[in-house]
Design goal:
The chain contains 22 helices and no strands. It is mainly alpha-helical. The protein has a single domain, classed as MFS general substrate transporter like domains (Growth Hormone, Chain: A, Up-down Bundle).
Length: 461
């Protein structure tokens, strides 16, 4: 059965407690803007696939490769950002990621040939991969346990807000009759939120757990206080952070892939793999393409993409409000059941040529199930299960696994779907049966417990 981690019946004297402050909320929202750029960069290409295929004369195979080129950068960004985040701090790395997003937006808008386009999409992928690691990790490290799920889930909310803005932007730009420049504008508008992100980062603090690791205890104390840790709990929380780091016995350079961290490693890899085996990135990257496969015209396909994005946003917001009350496992259970039902219906729609309305309805249920389950939980869960001393590398591993699977799904989708749309959705439904079994039998609950206590309850010394 699942290794449930329950909150103690009695709270130890001086145990960490906290409240929501304006400073904490503002810092979390700014960090989560990395998620908005992540979502925008991920989804904006969905409205340009037809232009890309015609403009660069791409086969279905090369279209898949072009779309997944950003994911190659994402994989590199996710796996390589952990050590810089430990060395330079979470906020310093977020600055670098903001610059990458800005360069990617302008570069894709002015790309002079296919190779240039691929290079700047790769840079955008580096930003997405890095943001998927650092934004949720940073928010988890500044948040009191009682608010951590909701605040880390703000990253996911901003990811889906970025996806919706990309769909909406694509729809508006597509209605302006800009001709060949249309898709270039779709890519270029991301420069605006990237600039806002860079400006607002100036006002955010460093992570208190990173500051403790650097020996800057007084600064860490000030940040914890401003982020809502109660004054009578400051010493207790600082002591727990120092004990978790335990740098006298565990250096920040110690091996990560070892028996001590096997349990969180397996949990992170499993949730990240299942996230993409749902087919979520195939839907996000190829939303308009899927609806055109079912018979919709270009304008209708772009509008239906906006409906999908809006549904994603609404159910992510719903999950954000309840994740610290219902817990992570319960959301995953509900989402898994919704996945199985909706993906099966999507497969049926393609097998029987039932028309666009059944497909739209099933995909709306699918995106709602994702938003309320996996989408809301994945980045929260991965940010919680690793000890402070290896959290950056653990988050990087989870994100790396997520993006490796995303690349495989997005690259293969056009080829498989061109032969049989029903087969691909049936395969995703079968994978979600596997996720449901994993959630029931393996996944632990982590709600309402400090990061340091989660480490102890997973049996990590």
């Amino acid at each position: 059965m699942a290794a449930n981690i329950q909150t103690p019946a009695t709270t130890p004297p001086g145990a960490p407690s906290g409240h929501l402050t304006t400073y904490l909320l503002g810092s979390a929202v700014v960090a989560a803007l990395g998620g908005l750029l992540f979502g925008f960069e991920t989804a904006v290409i969905s409205g340009t696939t037809e232009w890309l295929q015609k403009h660069f004369e791409l086969t279905d195979f090369m279209l898949g490769f072009t779309v997944s080129s950003a994911l190659i950068g994402t994989i590199v960004g996710a796996i390589s950002v952990g050590r810089p985040a430990d060395a330079w701090g979470r906020r310093g790395v977020l600055f670098i990621l903001g610059i990458l997003f800005l360069l990617a937006a302008l570069g894709c808008a002015f790309a002079w040939n296919w190779h240039a386009f691929m290079f700047f999409r790769f840079l955008g992928g580096l930003g997405v991969g890095g943001a998927s690691v650092v934004s949720p990790m940073y928010i988890a490290e500044i948040s009191p346990a009682s608010y951590r799920g909701r605040l880390v889930a703000v990253t996911q909310f901003n990811i889906v807000l970025g996806i919706l803005l990309a769909y909406l932007s694509n729809y508006i730009i597509g209605s302006l009759g800009l001709g060949d420049a249309q898709s270039r504008w779709m890519f270029g508008v991301m420069a605006l939120p990237a600039i806002v992100f860079l400006l607002l980062l100036v006002f955010t603090p460093q992570s208190p757990r990173w500051l403790v690791a650097q020996g800057r205890i007084a600064e860490a104390r000030r940040v914890l206080e401003k982020c809502g840790t109660d004054l009578n709990a400051l010493d207790f929380e600082l002591g727990e952070i120092q004990a978790s780091l335990d740098l006298a016995h565990h250096g920040l350079e110690e091996p990560f892939f070892c028996r001590r961290y096997l349990k969180p490693i397996l949990l992170a890899v499993a949730i990240a793999m299942f996230n993409q085996l749902s087919g979520i990135n195939a839907l996000i990257y190829y939303t308009a393409h899927i609806f055109k496969m079912a018979g919709a015209d270009q304008a209708s396909a772009l509008l239906q993409s906006v409906i999908i994005g809006f549904t994603n946003l609404v159910f992510t917001l719903a999950a954000l409000t309840v994740i610290d009350h219902f817990g992570r496992r319960r959301l995953m259970l509900l989402g898994s059941i919704g996945y199985i039902a909706s993906l099966s219906a999507s497969a049926y729609a393609f097998y029987t040529h039932s028309g666009g309305w059944l497909l739209l309805g099933s995909l709306l249920v699918f995106i709602a199930s994702h938003a309320f389950g996996q989408g809301a939980v994945i980045w929260v869960f991965i940010s919680e299960i690793f000890p402070n001393r290896v959290r950056a590398r653990g988050q990087a591993l989870g994100s790396f696994t997520h993006w490796i699977m995303a690349a495989a799904i997005s690259w293969t989708f056009p080829m498989i779907a061109a032969k049989s749309g029903g087969h691909v959705f049936a395969f995703y439904a079968l994978c979600m049966v596997g996720q449901l079994i994993w959630v029931i039998r393996v996944m632990p609950e982590t709600k309402g417990i400090s990061l340091e206590q989660i480490q102890k309850r997973l049996g990590i010394e």
